[in-house]
Specification:
Order of helices and strands: EHEHHEEHEEH
Mean pLDDT: 78
CATH architecture of the largest domain: Alpha-Beta Complex
Shape: elongated
Helix content: 25-40%
Low-confidence stretches: 1-11
Strand order of the largest sheet: 3-4-6-5
Largest sheet: 4 strands, antiparallel
Number of helices: 5
Structural class: alpha+beta
Number of domains: 2
Strand content: 5-15%
Distance between the termini: 32 Å
CATH class of the largest domain: Alpha Beta
Length: 235
C-alpha cells in the first residue's frame, strides 16, 4: 500500500488493532506490512490501523505499551535451516575408561527445528530397524551404554522396545511427541507410543558414532524442552 494512499489514523481506535511501522523501512517491507494488516483484519474481523511513523515516535511509545498489563514481543525473521551437520563434540572419558556422558556437553547449538544444523547429515541419517527385524537386536553392552548416557544427560529411563529400538519414558505424551518431531529433523529416526519415545539401537552401533548420536540428539532436544518449551522462556 503506497504511503500516499494510506488512510489517516482515526482518532478513536478503541477495539482496533494498530500496526505501527517505521516509515524509513524499505518500500518492500512497508508493502509487506500493509498486506499483513489487510490479512489480519480479515482474520480477526475487526479494523486494523496501519500507521507509518518516524522511528523516534516508535521509541517514544514503548514505555506506554508496557504500562499495566501490557506486553511487548519482538519477533525476528526465521533463519533458514542449514543442511550442514553440526560439528561433533569431543569425547570426554572417565577415569575408568568409560564415556563421561554427563560432562560431554556444556552448551548446545540450536535445534534443526529452529534453524540450527542437524546433528547428522542427510547422507548419514540414522535409521531405525523395520518392525519385526530379529537381526536388529543390539549388543547388550551397547544397549547398556545408551541407557546410561540417556540417564546421565536427561534423567529419563530407557528400556529395550523390541529389536532395533529403545523406549524412553517421558513425562507425558505431549513431551514424547515434541521430542520425536525435533529428533527426526536432526536426521535420527524416532517414533512415539503414548508417553514413550522410541529411538534406534542396532547391533552395528559404534560407541563414538551411532551410540553418541542417539544420546546427543535426546540430550539437546530434552534440554530445549526443559529450558524453552516448559521452562521460564516458554511462550
Amino acid at each position: 500500500m503506497p504511503e500516499e494512499c494510506a488512510p489517516e489514523m482515526p482518532m478513536d481506535v478503541a477495539g482496533r488493532i494498530v500496526l505501527a511501522v517505521d516509515r524509513d523501512l524499505p518500500a518492500e517491507a512497508r508493502e509487506a506490512c500493509a498486506e499483513l494488516a489487510s490479512a489480519l483484519a480479515a482474520r480477526a474481523g475487526v479494523p486494523v490501523t496501519l500507521a507509518t511513523v518516524p522511528v523516534q515516535s516508535l521509541d517514544a511509545i514503548r514505555p506506554l505499551l508496557r504500562d499495566g498489563d501490557g506486553r511487548v514481543r519482538e519477533l525476528a525473521p526465521p533463519r533458514p535451516v542449514s543442511a550442514a551437520p553440526m560439528a561433533a563434540a569431543p569425547f570426554v572419558w572417565r577415569g575408568d575408561g568409560r564415556p563421561d556422558w554427563g560432562a560431554m556437553w556444556t552448551t548446545f547449538c540450536d535445534l534443526a527445528l529452529y534453524g540450527g544444523p542437524p546433528h547428522r547429515g542427510a547422507d548419514q541419517a540414522l535409521r531405525g530397524a523395520p518392525a519385526g527385524d530379529a537381526g536388529a537386536e543390539p549388543v547388550a553392552e551397547t544397549l547398556g551404554e545408551i541407557q546410561r548416557g540417556i540417564w546421565e544427560t536427561t534423567g529419563l529411563y530407557a528400556e529395550p522396545a523390541g529389536p532395533g529400538w529403545l523406549a524412553v519414558t517421558c513425562e507425558s505424551g505431549t513431551m514424547a511427541a515434541w521430542l520425536c518431531a525435533a529428533i527426526i529433523l536432526e536426521n535420527v529416526d524416532a517414533r512415539v507410543e503414548e508417553d514413550r519415545l522410541l529411538l534406534p539401537s542396532g547391533p552395528d552401533f559404534k560407541l563414538e558414532d551411532q551410540v553418541k548420536s542417539v544420546i546427543t540428539v535426546l540430550a539437546k532436544t530434552h534440554h530445549y524442552w526443559q529450558a524453552h518449551v516448559t521452562g521460564g522462556d516458554a511462550g
